[in-house]
Predict the structure.
Amino acid sequence: MDETGAQPRTDSDLVTVNALNVYHGQLCAIADVSLRVGEGEVLAIIGANGAGKSTLLRTIAGLHQSRSGSIYFRGENISRLAAHRRARRGISLVPEGRRLFRSLTLEENLKVGAHRAAPGPFSVARIYELFPWMAERRHHKVLQFSGGEQQAVAIGRALVANPRVLLLDEVSLGLAPIVVEKIYEVIPEIVAHGVGVMLVEQDVAQGLRVATRVHCLLEGRTSLEGAPAQFSAHEIERAYFGSDLRQATSETEPS
Amino acid sequence: MSEVTSSLESLHVRRSTFSPLFTLAGALVITAFFTAAPWILAASWVSILSNFFILLIMATMWNLLAGYAGMVSIGQQGFVGLGAYATLYFAIKGMNPFAAIPFAIVTCAVLALPITYLLFRLRGGYFAVATWVVADSAMLIILSIALLGGGTGSYLPGLSSLSPTQLDHDTYLATWFVALAVVVATYLILRSRLGLVLSSLRDNETASRSAGAKVTATRRLIYVIAAAGCGAAGSVLAISQPFVQPGNAFNLNWAAEMLFVTMVGGLGTIEGPILGCVIFFVLQQTLQNYGAWYLIIFGSLAVAVALWQPRGLWGALRQKTHLELLPVGYRVRRSDGVETTSS
Amino acid sequence: MTWVNVVTQGVLIGGFYALFACGLSLMFGVMKVINLAHGDMAVVAAYAAVFLAPKLHVSQLWSFLVIVPLFALVGYLVQRTLFQRAIDRDPFTTLLVTFGLSVVIENLLLEIYSANGQSVSIGALIAKSWQVNSVIYVSYVSLVVLAVAVAVLAVLQLFLSKTGSGRLIRAVSDDHEAAQLCGANYKHVFGIAAAIAFATVALAGIAYGMTTEFMPTSGGINLLYAFEAVVIGGLGSLWGTLAGGVGIGVAQEIGAHINPAYQILAGNLLFLAVLAVRPRGLFGKRTSLNE
């Protein structure tokens, strides 16, 4: 498969990444990755630990600088833009580990998320409708919440900004399957508003279930790209591990 | 496997830019020169050199503390003061002030040890300001001891039998030998196993902690050594004055000077403080008729270096020339001539 | 009754220490910077009240109306340039830079204004006091300073807890990267926090000049008290800072009552004792003192 080099931009593209290279010091984390996300699309980024998935999302959000390559957002080159400017333009990242404001209450967390919000369908009130348990605990400090609850707050905090692109980094990490299911329930609603979603998942099966397209990284490089239905489990396994393994991909342990 | 072995064989590990013999010869010449200085140089130069060596002792100790062990102290003047007062105390009790130097050093080390148990509860900026509180408290306690002259201070007894020239010579030699001992000791510490622990600590504390390095114990040892060294500086300072007064012995400017000198010269290198001291004294002598301007300019220089050249002037020089005078790291040279340095 | 007076005077001084300390506490809380030049900034404000205000045809008493906003502006600019650059390197560099700044400011003042003591003249107000009974009397100036301190702390507390900007400041101090993802320019927020800190320190410096004679070297020792107040009170708690300031003030007055030489030592000893027993301070919450 040939997926190196720039891809043509179409008008429905929200994010276009061209030949991106990102380094952590001397270490190459992302090598020559290109991708695009359109309106209403769900792109699942899969790959083993250390494949560069989080780095990719963080680079698109502006928390890492790329060494070369470019990132376009709705036709504008944002490669050198500071993270807060990208957020204001409509890129919201739900970071790995949730990163809530620990000394703030639930509602304050959402209000910070909304402080530069674009007009759109999501508001603090709308989040309380999506997650009904939140309303009555709005004045509680988020530190006391369970992992799943905290993750819901983190997603709510990103949504109230009314992003055009939502980046979800390992939202299911460390959560019980039933809780994960609850969180994934909101994705169709988000997509229905034309938001593009990029999600990083260690749980490949989960990622593939909601994705319209899948992008697999192997040691920082693209190893597979396309619609999930295009590939057999075996193909995905090879792209994921870089070699044949007699093992179901969905059984990969999260860590 | 054989490939690995052969590539290892073609690596040459060594420390210095120059051959050890060359370095040793250079060290001997320098030692001889400074030992003979009182008989060669004018008296005014000798006294400047005394002050130079006192500052060099402090800067070398601060460098060990901050540059190698990562502890930013702004309270080392506390040990300078305690060293000076310990010397005064032993002299009052009838000891020859020069003989009191080692006792003052030991006193400071002994006092420093329990202090670490309090200070090591804090890190970073809190540690820094707490060292200052300790230094301030030490001064206030000394102030209230009438035997040591209280707030007005006291002449150091036991030096009147010496002629002024003799006293100047002996003072100079004391500062020079203490400075030599401190620099050599620091050099040996950094080349020892302790130095390895320190450099691994500097690179990654968590990693070296899990690798079994005794982080706290190492820090404690370094803190005590630095206290002893600053005590030595205080002791020779007392002899060189020879008047001991709290406002001078415990002056915060000592902390400022040792910090600035190390920053400008190069934090985390042995040569850095030496270079910094040279620049400092050149500036001070040039601007000696302009009050505190030397400190203003030097302080601004230190701030600028901290922001734009954190390895200091020596670090910048070394990067350009790959020069190592007192190497504590290793250089690995591949057979194709590519060299990497670790320090 | 003598002891009641000692405590009263201690509380009055403690209010001043708290005013002095709240900027230090804010800057550490938000950008994890211990500004070692904090005390010297206060002294600069006091000098500005004595020497700059008359040039602007403002009386020294009302000079804070000019100097406080000026300091807020300077604070913002210093944060966005010098301090931000140091923060971008590491905590180590911020310490060195602020300490260097402290020494440079102190010696500059010494060169310009000499070591002579100065004071901010407030006319006849200085001598007025309120005699409670035969032993206890309260000077108007220190009462005003205490009131200002409490007011500043209350306003600051309200600002941080109730307003959107305050919420943003708290969010940035919790996690500035996550705040960035919410569209907040954390460097700007840092600047705002520094502006507030500098404004309060200017107020503290002018208040200091009104109550005491000051000189170029007065900054360091006041930084020490302020720092002790912050640590005793516990990080992240403005009311803790007030309690810490009062604690230091009372300890100093008790020390001074026993022997004038013990005044400052008593404060230091209280600080070291709190450090030994309760390193997180009296009202310290989750925030650890490490790092």
Observations:
- Chain C has one domain: 2-277.
